[in-house]
Specification:
Elements lengths: L2 H6 L7 E2 L2 H9 L5 E5 L2 H4 L5 E2 L4 E2 L3 E2 L1 E2 L10 H11 L2 H5 L4 E12 L5 E12 L1 H14 L10
Parallel strand pairs: 1-8
Antiparallel strand pairs: 2-6, 2-7, 3-4, 5-8, 7-8
Helix pairs in contact: 2-4, 4-6
InterPro entries: DUF6098 (IPR046080)
């Protein structure tokens, strides 16, 4: 049992995803799945997302899209590695936070064009193992930080 599983033990009982292949299978079984890094679904039922630069409350929970777009022709695990790593620092900086997979209804988009959801349904937690695997794959298979003007 890893630290994420121990933290999740006191939270909504959900399965814990332990690898990118398992996450890819879960994503393939649902219409649209999202990822959120927070104190978990129980806490998020009682809170709102906030745009910290403006101070405004957002009309839904801020999430990252896990379902690959139709134009994505690389393996789904590549998409997932990129999406899992996008905001992983939120968990790495705060041990009370966790990554969790959810479904919901898009009600708006946030200042970074991220979907904002309501009618949220928790699906699973992410383990530390899947986050480490995503980091390894992201570093191996992507040119992180490359800009359009780079040769």
């Amino acid at each position: 049992m890893d630290a994420t599983s121990r933290r999740n033990g006191a939270r909504t009982p959900l399965p814990t995803i332990t690898g990118l292949a398992e996450l890819a299978e879960l994503v393939s079984e649902h219409d649209r799945l999202y990822l959120r890094y927070s104190d978990g679904p129980d806490q998020d039922r009682r809170s709102v997302s906030k745009d910290y630069e403006s101070g405004l409350e957002l009309p839904g929970l801020s999430v990252t899209v896990l379902t690959p777009e139709p134009w994505w022709t690389r393996p789904p695990e590549d998409w997932l590695a990129r999406q899992v790593r996008k905001y992983a620092s939120l968990v790495e900086e705060d041990p009370e936070r966790c990554g969790w997979v959810l479904q919901g209804r898009t009600v708006a988009h946030g200042p970074d064009h991220e979907p904002l959801l309501d009618d949220v349904r928790p699906i699973a937690y992410l383990s530390e193992d899947v986050m480490e695997e995503a980091l390894d794959r992201y570093r191996r298979d992507f040119e992180a930080g490359r800009r359009p003007t780079d040769p």
